[in-house]
Amino acid sequence: MRTQRAGQATFLPLDTISTKPINDKFRSFARGARLAVDVIQYEPAVERAMLHACGNALVCDTMDVARYVCWERGQEVKAVTLEGTVIHKSGLITGGRSTHGGGKKWEEKDVQGLTRLRDNLVAQLQELNRSKPRGKADENVIAEITRLESAIAVVRDDLSACKSRYNGIKEELKHVERELKKLSPELKKAQTSHSLKRNS
């Protein structure tokens, strides 16, 4: 592949690959969410590879469904929407279709979901500190908290920018409405004058 510049690929040995059993609860966990292994068509010979690659990942009809599963219900699974947006187990969002502004359209519920994840990790860290000395698990939680806090900061900035643009558009609309009100009497006067000239 390197000599032919065919890109990168992952090779999975079917005879030795390890797989975890699918959690059947996700087959009917939420309306509009289905296990990826249930919606992808594949040959029985590669079933072990598909189970290894997909695991309990869910395909969700909309971003709202993905948020519900990952954040409101607190399930640590990867959720992929039909538009390509991915909510990872860590809670971070990647992919998806860009908005008119070229960036991610964040909503209040996105910020709230990330904040809940951060708070949950902080609680886990506090529990670990009470139960045992700091170790590898603590370091992983701290790293996850740091990533989430950075993500929350970016989301808040994007949300603030969106609100500013929205307020600017509202002001422009108000200005246009005021101008229309000013011009309306002149328009009626011109129409009346034109009508009188035609009738004379």
> First CA to last CA: what distance?
87 Å
Q: Strand percentage, roughly?
A: 5-15%
What is the overall number of helices?
5
Number of spatially distinct domains: 2
H-E order: EHHEHEEEHH
Helix fraction by DSSP (H/I, runs of at least 4): 55-70%
Organism: Suillus luteus UH-Slu-Lm8-n1
InterPro entries: SMC_hinge (IPR010935), SMC_hinge_sf (IPR036277)
Protein name: SMC hinge domain-containing protein
GO molecular function: ATP binding; DNA binding
How would you describe what is shown here?
- By secondary structure, this protein is of the alpha+beta class.
- The chain has two domains: 1-97, Alpha-Beta Plaits; 102-200.
- The protein is built from five helices and five strands.
- It has a five-stranded mixed β-sheet with strand order 1-2-3-4-5.
- A hairpin with a 5-residue loop joins strand 4 (85-87) and strand 5 (93-95).
- The model is unreliable at 98-103 (pLDDT under 50).
